[in-house]
Structures are given as structure tokens and as C-alpha cells.
Description:
CATH topology: Glutaredoxin
Largest sheet: 4 strands, mixed
Shape: globular
Number of strands: 4
CATH class: Alpha Beta
Number of helices: 7
Structural class: alpha+beta
Strand content: 15-25%
Radius of gyration: 14 Å
Amino acid sequence: MAIIRYTGIYNADGGVWGETRYVIGHMLGTAACSLCDITHSPIRRKPQWDAMVARLPVPFKVLHRNEITPAETAHVAATGLPVVLAHHDDGRISTVLRSAQLDAVSGSVVAFELALTRPALAKA
């Protein structure tokens, strides 16, 4: 039951209109996504994020809520968004980090990496 990949799912829709709605909503305080805050600065994706993903032993993909598979959709219905899921070699999907845990890292890539790779230490 080894992890073969991670999927982070934003609490936002992809595409031009989805991303525009999110940016405007974020500026107005009506939209929030702590995973977005971890992966992106106000202008672009954080270079620290790309470096962290490159260090991971398995791929990490981020998707918008309107881009996920039916299996991920079913899982998200129980966990809420944003969320980080682990895909296992036996086909199982498990939750790695929930919204509250993503909120707790306060946009820090370093704190995110610690929570993802060393969950016991992150809770200490």
C-alpha cells in the first residue's frame, strides 16, 4: 500500500472564468483556498513550491475542483476542500492533509512539506 502519487485539490475552479472568479473573490474576501496560498504568491506559482515538489519521492499534482476524477470527487465529498490526497499502489485513495491542516501552515511551503512528509513531527 505504498503511495504512488499525491493530488492536491484547490477550493477553486480552473479555466479562465474560474480563476478570474477566484481572484476577484479572494480580493473581496469572499473566496479562500489555503492550498492556493501555499502554492502561489499573489502573482504566480512560488519557486519554493516547485523545488519542494521536485524533492518528493513521488509525483505531486494540483488540480482545481472542476478537474478531478470521479473517484477523487467521491472522496472529496467526505473530506471537503482544499485537500491533499494520496493515491496508493492498490488503487486506494486516502486523505493526507485536510483543510484545517492546510490552514495551519499559513501559506508556508516549508511548513507544508513538513506536514506532508513528517506528519508526526508537524503535530508536535
